[in-house]
Amino acid sequence: MKLDVPGAVSVTAGLLALVYGVSMQNWPAFAAGAVLLGIFWVIELRAKAPLASLTLLNRPNIKWGNLGGLIAFVMSTGVNFGLTIYMQDVLGLEPFTVGLVFGVPGLAAVVAGIVAGRLIGRYGYRTVLAAGLLTQGLMTVPLLWIGTSTASLFIIVPSLFVLFFGHVTAIVAYTVTATSGLPDSQQGLATGLASLSQQVAVTIGIPIFGAIAATRTDILDGIKLAMQAQVVAIVVAVALIWVGLRPRPQATEVAEPARVRSSA
């Protein structure tokens, strides 16, 4: 099997430059990263054995499913980072205590992993993906009321319970969405593309959150601003995904003659 070395080099260098540019507000580095990622895109479209089969993005479920995964991971990585900084630097909590704050609501993620598949089977991946992302975004809203008192933990813990449930539900739904409706020969490529979306999102999530938060001199104000941006981004993404995954009329038109022939 031939390795896609140019693709691997260009995407790695591009992401590194992009993250460095955002983190350090070095816009030449950011521009270089964007150019390298553009080169990666061209390489993948022409490669015989691409690292990520970008031609699959022509399929709506692949395109919008991966967008859902990208948004879910970018936002969760950012909010976890922001809350960690807040609880340690603003509330003065010990790292172990911060871990408990995240760990206890994490039980909701376990439940979501179990029930998400059933929800998809009943309501479809479009509805579950949109609902999971919207839950993740809307449960960030209560976090905008956190303050300098440890009483804010009574806001954080319940919010994270529901937020983590929505996040994991969205992850399961995006994985199903991004790998559905494909022949067995393309399942591996679709799974690789879904994994790439996840890795890219995890890489850029903290730098984006940190760059927005750094525009404010006060830590708490910066964290709240970044969270506000996250809520807006998720709502916009959900609207795009909902429209992008809408049932296509031609599918019905093709199915009708098939039913007529079968009845005849």
UniProtKB/TrEMBL annotation:
GO terms for cellular component: plasma membrane. It holds the Pfam family MFS_1. It is a multi-pass membrane protein. It comes from Phytohabitans houttuyneae. Keywords: Cell membrane, Membrane, Transmembrane, Transmembrane helix, Transport. The chain crosses the membrane at residues 25-43, 64-86, 98-116, 128-147, 153-176, 188-213, 225-245. This is Major facilitator superfamily (MFS) profile domain-containing protein. PROSITE patterns: MFS.
